[in-house]
Amino acid sequence: MSGRIYVRAPDALDELILALPALRRLSEREAGEGGEGGGAGDGGSRVDIWCPLSLTPVLEMAGLPAEIIPLPRQPAWKTARWLRGSGYSGAYLFSRAPAAALAVRLAGIPRRGRAAAYRAGKGEHRSVEYLRIVDPEWSEGRPAPARLEVPIRAREDFRRLVTGRFERPAVAIVPGSRAPARRWPEGRFTALAGLLSGDVGTVVAFGGPGDEVLAARVAAGGGTRGVDLGGRTSPTVFAAGLSECDVAVANDNGALQLAAAVGAPGVGIFGPRSPGRFGPPVAGIQALWHSMLPCAPCGREGCRRFGRGSILSEARDECTQLIAVEAVARAVREQLEEARATSDV
To answer: In the UniProt record, which is one GO cellular component term (predicted)?
Structure first.
């Protein structure tokens, strides 16, 4: 080993999955496994990826040739104290958090690459932006999409959770979002569950911490075919559940990226961000987005519009309000038909 490389992973699930191709390229290059001669991989540096504690199980499913180190929530000075004297010869920052950059500076680690400032408008796909942290001269377009290997134990745990209540075809609905402007209205998710309950065997509602009530209401919308798993799954069991379902429906968030990474077809509901820049770079995800609004894509996590909208009577959250329940249901049915044509669903 010629040294150790410090890598700070992104702080959100969707960003982590979009960064995986770059994290793999960096890990393989530095470890000397994937480089094409020359570069940092010659000496076989060890790569340590420091990842927020809640995202560590997801990163471990990627099987990267790197050490995954859980990073608890703590002040930058405390992280710097951990890093100081650890022998890191360079740092790559995939997190845009100011505290991540501050910790590296306080620890005295030379910075080799850092995530660019957030830009909401037109530009390269996010996965390419992350690749440019590792390779500024990257010119090969979008990388191969990330793939995650779901542990067998997680699949078994999911099947135990839904024993006697899971019948295919199954649709996963993930109604939550950390950004209010990217959240399709709760009532529409509930109505969607009701519409789909006549077409499928099971409607599974997922939700993380804080989304338990939301998931319960959506599951109730599915009637006897609804299954509520809000707050009942670990990250790996959540991934297993998405992979076991025939279609996943989610906002523009980490759940949609996770579904794509485990190979589940999906329908993504996009609002303030463009699916061309932030959507999963796979063919199996159908994105619904109204790009004709003058404010789109604004990229904001909270809508700042008020008064009369461009199309609707209200401007607030117009981009997501324009997406009708029937349009999402139609997209799900199209995905199910395609699945039936290629499998035993």
So the answer is: cytosol
In this predicted model, which residue has the larger pLDDT, 44 or 49?
A: 49
Q: pLDDT digits over 9-23, tens only?
A: 999 999 999 999 999
User: Which pLDDT score, from 0 to 100, does residue 39 have?
Assistant: 40
Who contacts 74 (Cβ-Cβ below 8 Å, separation ≥6)? Answer: none
The bridge status of strand 88-93 relative to strand 4-8 is parallel
**Rounded to an integer, what distance in angstroms lies between the CA atom of residue 94 and that of residue 116?**
9
Q: Distance (Å, rounded) from C-alpha 141 to C-alpha 127? A: 9
Say if CB 284 and CB 324 are below 8 A apart: no
Distances in Å between the Cα of 304 and the Cα atoms of 226, 271, 301 are: 35, 13, 9
| Residue 169, helix vs strand vs coil | coil
Buried b (16+ CB within 10 A) or exposed e, 245-270: bbbbbbbbbbbbbbbbbbebbbbbbb
Contact 71, 52 (CB under 8 A): yes
The whole-chain average pLDDT of the chain stands at 92
Q: What is the pLDDT of residues 147-160, one digit of tens each?
A: 999 999 999 999 99
Distance CA 42, CA 30 (A): 8
Which domains, and CATH codes, for the chain? 4-134 (3.40.50.2000), 159-342 (3.40.50.2000)
Give me the pLDDT at residue 40, please.
43
3-class SS shares of the chain: helix, strand, coil, % to 5:
40, 15, 45
